[in-house]
Amino acid sequence: MQPERPDEGTSDVSDEKPIRVILANPRGFCAGVTRAIEIVDKCLELYGPPVYVRHEIVHNKHVVDSLRARGAVFVDELDEVPHGAVTVFSAHGVSKAVINDAKQRQLPVVDATCPLVSKVHKEGQNHAARGREVVLIGHAGHPEVEGTQGQIPGGVYLVSAASDVDGLVVRDPENLAYVTQTTLSVDDTREVIEALKLRFPAIVGPDVKDICYATQNRQSAVREIAREADLLLVVGSRNSSNSNRLREIGAEMGKPSFLIADAEALRPEWMEGVATVAVTAGASAPEALVQGLIDRLGDFGRVEVIEQAGVEEHTQFKLPRILQDGERIKADESVA
What we know:
It is an enzyme of class 1 (oxidoreductase). Its cofactor is [4Fe-4S] cluster. (2E)-4-hydroxy-3-methylbut-2-enyl diphosphate binds at residues 59, 92, 142, 182, 240-242, 284. The active site is at 144 (proton donor). The chain is an alpha/beta fold and 336 residues long. The chain folds into 3 domains: 17-29 and 213-307, 3-Layer(aba) Sandwich (Cobalt-precorrin-4 Transmethylase, domain 1); 31-115 and 317-335, Rossmann fold; 116-199, 4-hydroxy-3-methylbut-2-enyl diphosphate reductase, catalytic domain (Cobalt-precorrin-4 Transmethylase, domain 1), CATH 3.40.1010.20. The protein has helices at 31-47, 61-70, 96-104, 115-129, 143-149, 162-165, 186-199, 213-226, 241-252, 287-297, 321-325; strands spanning 19-23, 51-54, 72-75, 87-89, 109-111, 133-137, 156-159, 176-180, 231-235, 257-260, 276-281, 303-307, 334-335. A 5-stranded parallel beta sheet has the order 10-9-11-1-12, with helices on both faces. Strands 3-2-4-5-13 form a 5-stranded parallel beta sheet. Helix 8 packs parallel to helix 9.
């Protein structure tokens, strides 16, 4: 008796060529984001809900919704915060006007500003103290930029692209400095700096060193994995500057590149003819969202996950001491 043969035209799924998924390393949470989330968590634990947070603690809806479910209340302005309520400033930083407003309202404040953003504030303040005018390279309307603008005495000149430099008029070209938003594209920022130096040879500043280590590492990782991919997927929120820069890098390399909030945003037509997918996540996107995307990619075939070697990040930022000690924050007190 002859053994039965499988019907022609059918195939064993295990014989199908898998979809290669290359995961960027590093990806997802950076030290500043981790610290900011931990600050809200610790405030909820020590003082109980509600804890009020000015603006989104970080730019990710899933993170914000999770903290909201535990009792965090997110507000646009401080006048929405009840008298005496524990208040947290977001990781993006705030202006001195916001700090003064909190003091006048006698709000006990925990400042979750990323230490690398605070470093930029200090650099700008030091330049202003030396009599220099300050140019800020950044995107208008971004919370970090608004905070930095309000931290530097005398204000700043804001430029977003090299093309903005041609029309920049300053009072004293010989006394000029620049600082940068921490989440910009390294390449774009370098172009702006070169344009500033060409127009104002006496200008001083930190090259691209103000761009945070995590932003630079994630951009370098994306450049590596995008070379091998047919498609780049960046997990992150649309209002996340660093996530948008990751998508732009892929697009500049000629690869179809999409910024998606989570697995549900993946569109089937993007997968047509795709054999290799590069996946990364912005600095405020939880790893659970990346794993959810990998599960979703399994709907289109067998998935082979490859972890990029990448750069190991060991940076950690401590919580404010008052939270470590579990002490009560006094009204009109601000801790960072």
